[in-house]
């Protein structure tokens, strides 16, 4: 159940994510997390800009949570306009690439999208006081409850790209590490925010491998099925590395969690 | 021949790159390039932070020069402390990784370093008024003349890493797209700044392929020769992608030029 503060925060976040020019006030972080500053690891020498760049370039791997010292930095980044503009530029570049593709028209040219932090945003969840933008260890029970709510907003740049790719004649494949027990919630969530059609929605079965092994296997099956992966977009390097990665890959930002 | 302004600027840059805590004044850019602001493309809507992130994550490819609108941004980044700290964090992470390696002691465990913008910095050249941090098209004649001077400073984080890797017992391989006609100058430059020993220094022969094809071929030859590439560090994704990439790769920042 939501506290009133969480509900207000979610509403603010939703407004932020759907408005074109809105910039969230940095103070929202303190609103959500009034105890910030009382934890023990605030005075690290870690340069959080360097940390984020190292995350985005896959120099840092297998990290399990955002460093305490960078909680506020990551929060400000995620709620501010920079994250949104970073996503927009990746989407714009992807569209420039896609426009120049020579599509065959046989319905086998596909674009692979990851879901979480690629097409749907879990930022309303990650901004919670109990999650702290990934600076508190991952709680699968709480996260799965959030997934079932099916209220994640679209990432605006990715939604626009999705619509433009459909117009170009590409087929869409959603390939996610979400488990297939959440199929109904994910379908409801995708459709509610504008991802209304797709060629395939591939979710992980219970007991399947995860990360780069899982994604490579599913992409290999796609290509063995006659599909050509012309583009592949994800927030994790494990979406983009491995076999059958696609003709070109696009990395969208995600400084909140790591999946190997 | 250097103008007095260029000489002074080179001296300032050298001091900056060798001092531990110095932060170059942003004004140095205007000192070097007093005509900044008179060009025609200053009022782009391009978000230069997003552009740099897209470059570093390999989302933008085959770009030929820094956008005019981002010349000052790239200059401030390269001359300021953020670039240095970004490099330091990558080097620190690489050392953490290397320390945990189980080395065999047979002399076949190697670390591959690219040279330009990875171990040596061409920033004194790129800061010139006639180069503008890569916002002016590449001039191979002028750049090659700079290479022959053999006065490029070390990138401090990489030099420290190099020394620490040697202490761990790794052998060093420098693998560069520089042509072998510059062998004498590169050797002189590397030794002058502290890279005093190596297992191999591989430079490109006249007429050889370039970029990812060249680097993959040379790494394949290394591994066929019995070497194990335990780590591989470069400023270009073409240093790190392709075959025989190494057990782990490290991308150091370079927003000034692209090699495919």
From TrEMBL, chains A, B:
Keywords: Glycoprotein, Signal, Storage protein. It holds the Pfam family Acid_phosphat_B. Residues 1-24 form the signal peptide. It comes from the Eukaryota. InterPro entries: Acid_phosphat_B-like (IPR005519), Acid_phosphatase_pln (IPR010028), APS1/VSP (IPR014403), HAD-like_sf (IPR036412), HAD_sf (IPR023214). One of its GO terms (molecular function) is nutrient reservoir activity. Belongs to the APS1/VSP family. May function as somatic storage protein during early seedling development. This is Acid phosphatase.
